[in-house]
Sequence to fold (255 residues):
Amino acid sequence: MVDGDGALPRCRHWADAVAHEFSRSIDNCTETVYDKYMRCALYARVSTTDQNCEMQLRELREYISRRGWQNGGEYIDSGFSGAKASRPALDRLMTDAAKRKFDCVAVYKIDRFGRSVLHLNQQLAALTSNGVRFIATSQSLDTDEKNPTSRLLLQILASVAEFEREMIRERTLSGIRAAQAAGKVVGRPRRVFRRDEVLRLRDEEGLSWRAIGTKLGIAAMTALDSYRQSSPCTETVSAGTSDSSGKRKKKTKAA
Fold:
């Protein structure tokens, strides 16, 4: 029996509240177990070798530590531009992602992962196909969230990162042109060495490029470039054959 008109609605509300609390407790338990065994790979990148990734790695380590996630490995590219699709640590990360050695990839900012929208979309598609999440910690981006807003922000920030790289490149080229117009020498300093000695060591003594470079105190490729650019050029190659030794062949005159 029901005592009063409001007893039945109160019972229904109480049952709904109990069911809600029960479902929420199940969700919390499921989330806790999921996060406990989450393996997260950390990726950091800097464009020049005089920089370091310690600040990025510290933030990423604290991020996974607060959530109780496991460190699935640290992948660091030092001295590589974000416009490059292939980088040593990034290539290893994508290979390990295909092997499911970790469950997610965390970066400090999306431009640390890449500054090209095309390459970024290809890499994120590869991670998604392998079931690996992508997280940009400082920008609150997580590809595990199945909502269009996260995907939209991801594309916008990727476009901004690419635009920023193009602006940096444009300013650098403008500065180089201005310096050249002012008469300043731009580029590497020219090596001063005896180029005739390169010819003698190669043609007469038959030394390797590495040996010539060591003897003259220059790089092996510098010696090779000097040998190729020296004049007069006396190298001849017969038709249908190729000479890969790098040595010169003297011309022979018809009698």
